[in-house]
Amino acid sequence: MMKQLQFLALLLFLGIWQGHSQNLPDVWDFGATQLDAASYDNQLDVDAINAWYDSSIAPGTTGENLPDFVAGDLTWTGGGNDRLRTSNTALTRYDENISDYEDFKGRIYINSSGATGRFFSLELQEDDEVTLWATTQNGTGQLHFEYAADPEMQNDVIPVTKELTELNFVAKAAGTYRIYDDTDKPSYFRIIRKAAEYSA
Questions:
Q1: Three-state SS letters, 8-47
Q2: Cβ-Cβ contacts under 8 Å for 3 (sequence gap 6 or more)
Q3: Alpha-carbon Rg for the chain in angstroms
């Protein structure tokens, strides 16, 4: 009987632990910065980012344009000449052209103005919260958070300047959302997805 109770207690503990870990916010940081693993589920590291590039390219190589990539529930669709710019020299990248931000060491730079065909796709559940940090080259950005299946249902637009800006969105429905700028050349530094939490 005691062994059965101990086994049940272990299962309960594991269930609580797994539930906790699964509820950690997901973070995609484009300088491969590792946020506190007790508070975040880091989706990118040096190996994951370097794997976006052709295997013939040595990790840490400079002068490389950013290819399209899939990183879990986040997908990038680009134009072929977009750039990963980072001070993390372990990463394959275009260059190290990044402003000196204490908490941000890398950015994806979109090398075309108003390029609506260059976007992130992010899978979300209803009421999921998305936080991202971005700038735009000329300070005239109009960043869209758009429900791909029905943009009329949700297409939030927020101005983005040359200053690093924190942007916050909440998904109105489950599905794929697109993130893009229809005016300027944006740079994306980090994206965080936090699952919706409901009180009992």
A1: HHHHHHHHHHHHHHHCCCEEEECCCCCCCCCCCEECCCHH
A2: none
A3: 19
pLDDT digits (tens, 9 = 90+) for 30-45: 999 999 999 999 999 9
Please tell me the distance from the alpha carbon of residue 124 to that of residue 118, in angstroms, as a whole number: 19
Cβ–Cβ < 8 Å for 104, 160: no
Q: What is the pLDDT of residues 73-96, one digit of tens each?
A: 999 999 999 999 999 999 999 999
| Token pair 């980072």: residue | 86
Tokens representing 65 are 């344009």
Report yes or no on whether pTM surpasses 0.85: yes
Of the candidates 131, 145, 181, the one whose C-alpha atom is nearest the C-alpha of residue 160 is 181
Residue with tokens 């272990």: 10
The helix/strand/coil state of 7 is: helix
